[in-house]
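Hey, resending since the last one bounced:
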Amino acid sequence: MTDPQELGAEGAPPPEPPPSDAWGSVLPAAVPPSATSVTLPATTPPAGGPHRLGARRLVSLIVAGLLMVVVIGSLGFFVANDLGLRTTVHSLTAELGSARASASADQLKITGQQTQLGADQWAISSLKAQIPTQPNFIVSAQGWQGPCGAYSCYPDGSFVNTGQAGEAVAIFKVTASSGSSAGSVLATCSASLPMTPENGTADASCTASSANLNQYFDDDPSGQVGLTVSVQNP
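The structure tokens again:
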């Protein structure tokens, strides 16, 4: 039996001595788990439950889709605008090239026309140089006013003025046509051509006589003579 002295006042066994380490130091008593528990606030589920969360997600997806459509549309607009600008630039470049080619062709035409103009001016200058500024009579006909004999011959002629209006002198030369003196000048005479307009005509005649003419017919009464007519223009 247990000694009554070893029991407590109420008959309970005495408490156990506190634990100690190897050197006799008292170790702190182990703290028993707290009987108190931490109470967390209760969370209230959102109103509507899972259905409301699904609606919010659906709205978020719709908004994100709309934003994507706006972004893609903006990118498409900028891409289309860039392509339009590039097309415009290419078109303007082509038009500029065409305009330059046309300008080069026009410049070639202008150069050719200038060359032709220079040639025309030279031709005009040449024609002007050929246009007489003074009278220029030419022989249009010649002959005799009557028989040519031992004492004299009577040549005549017609003349046309191809130059400017003016006067000139016609020269008649009687030449031997037979015998040893054939071709020699037997007698000479001259006549003035009166003032004649441009493209006008004039007639002139004179009497040619000389000792050579007399000697020619004395030597050959049936001798033949010829006539050479010229004009002394101013």
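Helices lie at 50-130, 211-219.

Sorry for the duplicate.
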